[in-house]
Amino acid sequence: MRSVPRGACIALGAALTAGALAGCGLAIGPAPSAVQLQVTRDFGATVLHSSGALHAGAGETMLNLLAGSLPVSAGSGGQVQRLDGLPGERSAGGADAAASWSYYVNGVLVSKPPAGRSVHAGDHVWWDLHDGVQAAGTQVVVGSFPEPFVNGVEGERLPVRVECVDAAGYACRAVTASLRDAGVPAAIAAVGSGGAPETLRVMVGPWDRIGGDLEAQSIARGPRVSGVYARFSADGRALTLLDAEGRAARTLQADAGLVAATRAPKEAPVWVVTGTDDAGVELAAHAFDRAALRDHFALALSAGSAIPLPDAASAR
Predict the structure, then answer these.
(1) What's the CATH number of domain 160-315, 3.30.379, 3.40.50, 1.10.287, 3.40.720?
(2) In this structure, how many other beta carbons lie within 10 angstroms of the beta carbon of residue 298?
(3) How far apart are the first and last CA of the chain?
(4) N or C: which end of the chain has fewer CB within 10 A?
(5) What average pLDDT does the segment 239-253 reach?
(6) Phi, then psi, of 122 in degrees rounded to 5
(7) pLDDT tens, 168-216?
(8) Which of 243, 215, 218, 219 lies closest to 231 in space, CA to CA?
(9) CATH 3.30.379 spans which residues of the chain?
């Protein structure tokens, strides 16, 4: 397994034991092998099916896994056309979608038709029916946490690096502890420690301190580019939440947080645990766990509330 460059590592303190790392890379035992299947609609807002632990046979495809749990029909190209009685309709031109089925494995979008994608041990498979126009850029979602940190991407487990503005602060310690609780040791580094295309990165800190990162910058360009339905103001002190059409739904000011993920072509996913200020970052770090993130594409936080993204406020 590849390891994170030693120069990027910072003392881990009490968050991880010394034996948990090997050269600040992964040195962990076998990952869980049970497969999970989740089916939702409208960006995870409605759960249609949630399996317990499933066993996938050798060579089993994603389509076979799906057909073993729900009624499904697929076209000649292997793409799902109808699932659990719900169609995924594409326009005549094929470029726009009123609503279409997309699937994510360990939180990462899979473009290969499910008939041609094998199931790997431990895969968390999530199908969602949603408007595909703005969501074209949604390559990564946070709702399969602790994936992809546990079982990785395309069957390959990757090193994990937590990049913190304040390595000794609550937010950094909370994020690292949550990964540790999931059995994932992680190196801790300063923000902007250098590119690592085969390392899963989690950036922790106020947006005005991490938003300049080359991969994080895509969030400022909207969901068609980053897949994240939120946008920070130029100074990072305001967080505008977007609806499914990419329109502004509401704006949060002080003490607002965000947990989201994005992915550039040929790069590993990058997660952000961020906010308009330190208090917002702490809210986001507190939500960096399975219970808070489950079934959400991304999650915004404000005092007393957690807001799944896209924001449905304008639809109410």
Answers:
(1) 3.30.379
(2) 30
(3) 48
(4) C
(5) 95
(6) 85, 0
(7) 999 999 999 999 999 999 999 998 776 566 899 999 999 999 999 888 8
(8) 219
(9) 160-315
Region of residue 248 (left: phi > 0; alpha: psi -120 to 50; beta: else): beta
Asked whether the beta carbons of 282 and 171 are under 8 A apart, the reply is yes
Burial pattern 214-223, b for ≥16 Cβ within 10 A else e, equals ebbebbeebb
Query: Quick one: tokens of 288?
Result: 């960096």
Tokens in use for 201?
């990165």
Instruction: Write down the mean pLDDT value for the chain.
Output: 86
Q: List where CATH 2.170.130.30 sits in the chain.
A: 36-132
Please state the length of the chain: 316
Q: In 3D, which of 301, 306, 131, 313 has the Cα closest to residue 224?
A: 131
The C-alpha atoms of residue 125 and residue 218 are separated, in whole angstroms, by 26
262, 228 Cβ separation under 8 angstroms: yes
36: phi then psi, degrees, rounded to nearest 5: -125, 145
Q: Which two tokens stand for residue 198?
A: 């085969």
The residue with tokens 């580094």 is 189
Measured at the alpha carbon of residue 268, what is the angle toward residues 16 and 266, in degrees to the nearest 5?
160
Question: What are the residues whose beta carbons fall under 8 Å from the beta carbon of 283, sequence distance 6 or more?
Answer: 255, 256, 257, 275, 301, 302, 303
| Calpha distance 303→294 (Å, rounded) | 20
214 Rama sector, left if φ>0, alpha if ψ -120 to 50, beta otherwise: alpha
State in words which class domain 36-132 has. mainly beta
- What are the tens digits of pLDDT across the range 114-141? 999 999 999 999 999 998 776 777 999 9
